[in-house]
Write a structure and sequence with these properties.
There is one protein chain. By secondary structure, this protein is of the alpha/beta class. Helices cover about 40% and strands about 15% of the residues. The chain has 15 helices and 10 strands. Helix 1 runs parallel beside helix 5 and helix 8 crosses helix 9. The longest helix is centred in the last third of the chain and has 18 residues. It is elongated. About 40% of the residues are buried. The mean pLDDT is about 95.
């Protein structure tokens, strides 16, 4: 599986831009994510001029949580981290025993992350139609985690077509139609299945519960035969825990050192103590998932005899007496014959004499 083992959820603590452009705060977030028990801490790597035009408006949630008179590109400039900061974060994450990740929002940023030595690439929902970025990500050969917020199923399929092409070829695709035909022929192949994971996502900040659509994880898994997870923008930790119980292989959750800080994503983020509580709960869910076989657990074994019942003679029964239902009581413990077999013996002669209260064997 792309991230973690079959039974372990890979938890990404999404620092994003909640450092507010301060490298020291970003370093503190690495430490906080590691202390909370996350598997990875993830930032966002971009250059404002390559991400937005000067005329680009802010998203409504950004306008609510930052200076409404500020343009999107002005906001983005304040939130950039330079190469030195990225390298410091990667080094700090290594020292803390946590994986460093960052989402690239442009090709130059992706090249920077590849040079730093990231282990996997996370593509944001807004770039599910960014063909050049998807193609370069696949050509790196690294695993890709693709968020699918705001996307139709056909758009997810097209993005997977680009990734599948890039993992297998260095030549550029001649057309979108060619990508679609190529993907339809073999759905990317085995190597592709081992490289790509899809995250269900509701791209709203915060996302109301009715927008989350956890069942879409099933649709993505069944349609594309890929591992799936959740990029969770809901308030609190309940939905992330529920996603783990539904089989998510990855949970990504925004966190902040202080939800009252100014900035676009703080209000929709959880704080470090909540992150730790979420991860503890997810680990409990992992242990509860089990192997899928319906059989008594080891913890149940000592209770079987005490909790189940056996057939006991309700009165003395002479050998050879035809058996009737009123000759038995069904009581604990489970000694003698299981009462599920009582009908096998009705009308037949007793094989031997039984005293009242004696288990029927």
């Amino acid at each position: 599986m792309l991230a973690g083992s079959r039974n372990r959820v890979f938890v990404i603590a999404e620092a994003g831009v909640n450092h507010n452009g301060d490298p020291e705060r970003a370093l503190n977030m690495v430490e906080a994510a590691a202390r909370a028990g996350a598997d990875a801490v993830k930032f966002q790597t971009f250059r404002a001029e390559l991400l937005a035009s000067p005329e680009a408006p802010k998203a409504p949630y950004q306008a609510r949580t930052t200076d409404a008179g500020e343009t999107q590109i002005e906001m983005l400039r304040r939130l950039e981290l330079d190469e030195r900061a990225h390298r410091r974060l990667a080094s700090a994450a290594k020292d803390a025993g946590i994986e460093f990740m960052s989402t690239p929002f442009d090709l130059n940023s992706l090249e920077l992350l590849l040079a730093i030595g990231i282990r996997r690439i996370k593509i944001a929902s807004g770039d599910i139609t960014n063909g050049p970025l998807l193609l370069r990500a696949a050509r790196s050969g690294l695993p890709t985690i693709l968020s699918t917020g705001m996307a139709l199923l056909g758009e997810v399929r097209d993005a997977l077509g680009v990734l599948a092409w890039g993992y297998r070829r260095q030549a550029d695709p001649p057309s979108l139609a060619a990508l679609r035909d190529d993907y339809a022929r073999d759905s990317g192949g085995t190597t592709f299945a081992e490289k790509v994971m899809l995250l269900q996502c509701a791209s709203a900040y915060p996302a109301p519960p009715q927008a989350i659509n956890l069942r879409a994880m099933d649709t993505l898994a069944n349609t594309f035969r890929l591992a799936v997870g959740l990029s969770d923008h809901s308030v609190g930790i309940a939905i992330a825990i529920a996603a783990a119980g539904r089989g998510a292989a990855v949970i990504e959750k925004h966190f902040t050192l202080d939800r009252t800080l100014p900035g676009p994503d703080h209000a929709a983020s959880i704080e470090p103590d909540e992150l730790a509580a979420m991860i503890r709960a997810i680990r409990e869910v992992e242990r509860a998932m089990g192997n899928g076989r319906k059989e008594p657990a080891e913890a149940e074994q000592p209770n079987i005899r005490a909790a189940r019942r056996g057939l006991i003679a309700a009165r003395d029964i002479a050998a050879g007496t035809p058996i009737t239902v009123d000759m038995f009581v069904v009581v604990r413990p489970a000694t003698g014959i299981s009462p599920i077999r009582i009908w096998d013996f009705l009308g037949k002669p007793a094989a031997r004499t039984y005293r009242m209260g004696e288990p029927i064997d």
